[in-house]
Specification:
With about 750 residues, this protein is mainly α. Helices cover about 80% and strands about 5% of the residues. It contains 19 helices and 6 strands. The protein has a two-stranded antiparallel sheet. It has a two-stranded antiparallel sheet with strand order 3-4. Helix 3 packs parallel to helix 5, helix 4 runs antiparallel to helix 13 and helix 5 packs antiparallel against helix 6. The longest helix is centred in the N-terminal third of the chain and has 46 residues. It is globular. It starts with a helix and ends with a strand.
Length: about 750
């Protein structure tokens, strides 16, 4: 036990290394599986090449951005006592690791897709094993890199700034170590935003183009090999839902742990870990959650064709949550002292455990509620199906209504989680609740990445003309994947809300302010401006998809018109031109939304000060969470309403199938919902976190303690002196002593 106490700080990155080793083993297993016949491998190669072409183009742009941002951070780090130029190194490592996490997931997904298709020729159980193992490479790899990167950098900065100087673990030196560490989170979130927005624009431009021309105009299936946009569509599943989601949750994971560490510094802890137990705890829980998620992946399996894939995934998810809750109890009791105080709020170590449970419960409920609003066969999706019978407009009305309604229960759960976690352990409780929720990220992301792999597998089966039973198995996986994608987005936005609140609390502490007074006109103005930002951000993302989709539609129409023999399978479409359109459009259009998230907090903070910036963050967080939930859930419900027609649906006693009028209306709804659920909606959680992290980074520069406003204090002292002149008359003199005190 004493050995563990003395070396716990080194055990944390070791758990990250273990996760990466497991990821490598699983990746090797997937690669060894049968990749099918030559035609299947050729189609899979097109998808892999397109995905890599996008990543290379994106990385080139982000490389320039990272270099400029690192230079600015290095300069700004020298201007205040609690930062350093080293923050730029931390930023670069965070950006590189985030990009690497996305690459790992996308690389294995483009290998697992065709192998899942081949496995589906044997059985549903085999197809699930390959697709979920491919997804788990992504989940375990992201969590492993996060734990390794954050744990290793903390050791270095803790040694440099605290141990080597003999400073207090609660003092300015530790604040400096964590401020420099925040650069890692800023790098991760910056790359995540561009990856999410760029990937979302890519995938939806291709998807909308493929749907509108292929399915609606030409009347051919979604993944028909004759559709020129079908390869770009399948590439989009990887760059948006795999690479984008991987970078997204990597950023959430890191930001949550960082916010908890910053708040943990404010707690004076009498413990066996040199007084840093509250700082180490979130990293330990993340590492343990990674190990337990690896264990829980063993529970995701089925044996018969009739077994429920959703139940198998739920078993893995529930196992990781329950195991994390049990282990957290022992970790908290072992590490923390009996009583602690943060900002005047007293709490015990058991209160910290209760806050972790609150976080796990909130994450679970958010996933369940999101599943209800987006899953096939449930009331919300059935209402959209029913209203599709009266046309395209009523389908749109139903989907918007479902999306808006779907915000009610999640917000109530989130509000209860915020109140409950704060009730137990103050702001540290809110942060540790978010850390508890994110502890199962490896499992959550494994389930989420499984969806795009299954979707790609179905596309390859369709394009390869495989037997109907193969497509039935991949469709089974894909339908579940649609729901898991929606629940993953619900989990991500919930974690972002709690993380942003924890970052907000950390910002208030670093900025040297003790409250945000919305009664002040400038703060209230900041609140309104913040509430507006998610709307303009969404508008830019959605309009970008619309412009790119128009280019795609025109290109697909041109190929059908100018290349004779495509519809008769006598000529091969020019897939690469559609891939190029999506790539160029996504790289071009992702810049402005990303710039908003990075620049607005800097302008507001340096112009109006920390309190107005706090008002802006409050507005962005509330508005962004609502917009994210509304758009993601509406899009997911529209998608599954459309997919329901493939098996046939009953409306007013009559059965309707694909190519029927209600199905065409559902395709329109799905087309509207595509940029909602895969571009602007899931980008909201990165937007609110990134703006909070940027604010935290600039907080020392704009804090109340380092304000450059000049105060002049004038103190006057008056004395009355009575004297007698030469004639014997009394003379009264007034002597005024004036003292000026100037403080900067």
């Amino acid at each position: 036990m004493e050995f563990l106490q003395n070396n716990l700080i080194y055990l944390i990155p070791a758990m990250g290394v273990f996760g990466i080793i497991v990821m490598a083993i699983k990746s090797a297993w997937v690669t060894k599986q049968d990749a099918g016949d030559e035609n299947m491998q050729r189609l899979s190669g097109y998808i892999a090449d397109g995905a890599m072409a996008f990543l290379k183009a994106e990385w080139k742009v982000l490389g320039y951005f990272s270099a400029i941002a690192a230079i600015l951070l290095a300069y700004s780090g020298t201007l205040v006592e609690t930062s350093s130029w080293v923050i730029s190194i931390s930023f670069i490592i965070g950006a590189f690791t985030s990009a690497l996490a996305g690459y790992i997931g996308m690389n294995i997904a483009t290998k697992a897709n065709v192998r899942t298709t081949q496995a589906a020729r044997t059985s549903l159980a085999s197809a699930l094993k390959v697709s979920f193992t491919g997804g788990s490479v992504m989940g375990i790899g992201v969590a492993g890199l996060a734990v390794l990167g954050l744990g290793s950098l903390f050791i270095v900065f803790y040694q440099i700034y605290v141990i080597n100087t003999g400073a207090s673990v609660n003092g300015k030196e530790m604040e400096k170590a964590l401020e420099v560490l925040a650069g890692f989170s800023l790098g991760a979130e910056s790359i995540a935003l561009f990856a999410r927005v760029g990937g979302g624009i890519y995938t939806k431009a291709a998807d909308v183009g493929a749907d509108l021309v292929g399915k609606v105009e030409a009347g051919i299936p979604e993944d028909d090999v004759r559709n020129p946009a079908t390869i770009a569509d399948n590439v989009g599943d990887n760059v948006g839902d795999v690479a984008g989601m991987g970078a997204d949750l990597f950023g959430s994971y890191v930001a949550t742990i960082l916010a908890t560490m910053i708040l943990g510094r404010e707690i004076t802890s009498v413990d066996n870990f040199g007084g840093i137990a509250p700082i180490l705890l979130p990293m330990l829980i993340a590492g343990l959650g990674l190990i337990l998620s690896i264990v829980a992946t063993a529970f995701v399996k089925i044996s018969k064709e009739t077994d429920s894939v959703q139940n198998a995934l739920n078993m893995g998810n529930w196992s990781s949550i329950v195991l994390t809750a049990i282990v957290s109890f022992f970790a908290v009791n072992w590490m923390l002292p009996d009583n602690m105080v943060i900002r005047g709020f007293e709490f015990s170590k058991m209160d910290v455990f209760y806050a972790i449970i609150v976080g796990l419960v909130v994450g679970t409920l958010m996933s369940l509620i999101t599943e209800y609003y987006t899953a096939m066969g449930k009331r919300p999706v059935l209402s959209i199906i029913r209203q599709s019978s009266t046309g395209h407009a009523t389908n749109i009305i139903a989907g918007l209504s479902v999306g808006m309604e779907s915000t009610v229960l999640p917000i109530l759960v989130l509000a209860g989680g915020i109140y409950g976690s704060f009730y137990f352990a103050g702001f540290y409780g809110v942060a540790i609740a978010a850390a508890g929720m994110m502890a199962t990220t490896a499992m959550q992301l494994s389930i989420d990445a499984f969806g795009p792999i299954a979707d790609n597998a179905g596309g390859i089966a369709e394009m390869s003309g495989l037997p109907p039973e193969v497509r039935e198995r991949t469709d089974n996986l894909d339908a579940v994947g649609n729901t898991t994608a929606a629940t993953g987005k619900g989990f991500a936005i919930a974690s972002a809300a709690l993380t942003s609140l924890a970052l907000f609390a950390a910002f208030v502490g670093v900025a040297g302010i003790d409250h945000i007074d919305i009664y002040k006109a400038d703060v209230l103005a900041g609140l309104f401006v913040g509430g507006m930002i998610p709307f303009i951000f969404s508008a830019l993302c959605i309009s970008a998809v619309g412009r790119a989709a128009m280019d795609m539609v025109n290109e697909v129409r041109r190929q059908f018109r100018e290349i004779p023999g495509i519809m008769e399978y006598k000529a091969k479409p020019e897939y690469e031109k559609c891939v190029a359109i999506s790539t160029k459009a996504s790289i071009r259009e992702m810049m402005l939304p990303g710039a908003i998230a990075l620049i607005v907090p800097i302008i507001i903070g340096f112009t109006f000060g920390p309190e107005v910036l706090g008002g802006l963050l409050a507005g962005v967080t509330v508005s962004g969470v609502l917009m994210g939930m509304f758009q993601s859930n509406a899009g997911g419900a529209w998608d599954n309403a459309k997919k329901s027609f493939e098996a046939g649906v009953e409306i007013n006693g009559e059965m309707y199938y694909k190519k029927s009028e209600p199905h065409k209306a559902s395709v329109t709804g799905d087309t509207v919902g595509d940029p909602f659920k895969d571009t602007s909606g899931p980008s909201m959680n990165i937007l609110i976190k990134l703006m909070s992290i940027v604010s935290l980074i600039i907080a020392p520069h704009i804090s109340a303690g380092t304000s450059h406003q000049v105060k002049v204090e004038v103190r006057k002292e008056m004395k009355i002196i009575n004297t007698v002149d030469q004639s014997g008359n009394t003379v009264t003199d007034t002597l005024i002593n004036k003292t000026e005190t100037i403080s900067r």
